[in-house]
Design a protein that fits this description.
Layout lengths: L10 H7 L8 H13 L7 H24 L4 E2 L2 E2 L1 H5 L1 H20 L4 H19 L4 H23 L5 H25 L1 H7 L4 H4 L4 H19 L7 H14 L12
Antiparallel strand pairs: 1-2
Helix pairs in contact: 2-3, 2-7, 2-12, 3-5, 6-7, 7-8, 8-11
Length: 258
C-alpha cells in the first residue's frame, strides 16, 4: 500500500505550480531561524527542516484557494494558476497539497504539532468566512499561522517551559500581523482597485497612521524577543533584512518613534 498522496496523475500539476513558488519563503526561513536561536548548538534538526518544508507547502496550498476566491489573475508576476488551468484544478490541487501536508506532519508523531497544524487550518477558514474586519482576517489567516508554527518549533526542540512558549507564540502572532500589514501596505493601490480589505483603507486612507502602526508592531516584536533566555540577535537581523527587502531598502524604522 502506497503512503504517498501525490500520484503520477497529480505530479504534472505540481510541476506546473512550482513555477509560482518563488516567494520570500518567510515562514520556512523564520522556522529555521527560531530553531537556531533556541538550539543549544545553534543547529537546525532534520525534523525542523521537514516541518519548515511542509509549512511552506501548506502556505502555497492556501494561495491556490485564495486566488480562486478572489478571482486573481496574477500571482507573483505570472498569470495565476487558476487562470491558466482553471478554478477546479486549482482547488483540487490545493486540497491534495493540504492532505499530503497533514499526512507528512503525522509522520512526526507528535500530537501537539498535529493540533497546531489543525488550528492553523481552522483559523484560515474563520478568517475567510468572517473577513469583514481587516484585522480579524489577517489575525486568523496570517498571524495565527506564524504563532502556531513557532510554537511547533519549540515542541520539536523539546522546550516545555510554558512562559517561553507563550512568548514565542505572542511574538509569532505579532510578527505575522506586522508582515501582513507591510505586504498589504505595498499592495494598497491594487487592493483598492479590486475592493479587497487593506490596512490603509481600514485606517481611513491615512498612510502615516498606517506606517506608525506597522512600526509600533515591529517594536513590540523586538520587545518580546528581549524577554526570552536565548540569543536572538541573528533572528533580529534576519527580520530587518526581510523588512528592507520588502520595502526596497526603505526601512520601516524611518517611521514611528524609533
Amino acid at each position: 500500500m502506497t503512503t504517498s498522496l501525490i500520484t503520477k496523475q497529480i505530479k504534472p500539476f505540481l510541476k506546473k505550480y512550482k513555477h509560482y513558488c518563488t516567494g520570500k519563503m518567510i515562514r520556512s526561513n523564520l522556522i529555521c531561524q527560531i530553531a537556531k536561536s533556541v538550539n543549544p548548538e545553534n543547529n537546525i534538526s532534520e525534523k525542523v527542516i521537514k516541518f519548515a518544508a511542509q509549512m511552506e507547502i501548506l502556505h502555497n496550498a492556501t494561495l491556490l484557494h485564495d486566488d480562486v476566491l478572489d478571482d486573481e489573475e496574477i500571482r507573483r508576476g505570472k498569470t495565476s494558476f487558476n487562470k491558466t488551468l482553471g478554478n477546479k484544478n486549482s482547488i483540487l490541487l490545493g486540497d491534495c497539497m493540504l492532505a499530503n501536508v497533514s499526512y507528512e506532519i503525522s509522520q512526526l508523531e507528535n500530537v501537539e504539532i498535529m493540533k497546531n497544524v489543525a488550528l492553523i487550518l481552522k483559523c484560515f477558514g474563520k478568517g475567510e468566512l468572517e473577513s469583514k474586519n481587516y484585522f480579524y482576517k489577517i489575525a486568523n489567516k496570517t498571524a495565527f499561522f506564524f504563532a502556531y508554527i513557532l510554537d511547533s518549533v519549540l515542541v520539536l526542540e523539546g522546550i516545555e517551559d510554558t512562559k517561553i512558549r507563550k512568548s514565542f507564540f505572542d511574538f509569532g502572532k505579532l510578527y505575522g500581523m506586522y508582515f501582513q500589514m507591510v505586504d498589504d501596505y505595498l499592495d494598497y493601490d491594487e487592493d483598492k482597485r479590486s475592493g479587497s480589505l487593506n490596512i490603509v483603507s481600514e485606517l481611513y486612507e491615512d498612510k502615516e497612521k498606517t506606517l506608525n502602526l506597522i512600526a509600533l508592531t515591529l517594536i513590540k516584536c523586538f520587545e518580546i524577543l528581549e524577554t526570552v533566555p536565548f540569543d536572538t540577535e541573528n533572528l533580529k537581523q534576519f527580520i530587518m533584512e526581510i523588512d528592507k527587502e520588502m520595502l526596497h531598502s526603505q526601512s520601516i524604522q524611518e517611521y514611528g518613534n524609533w
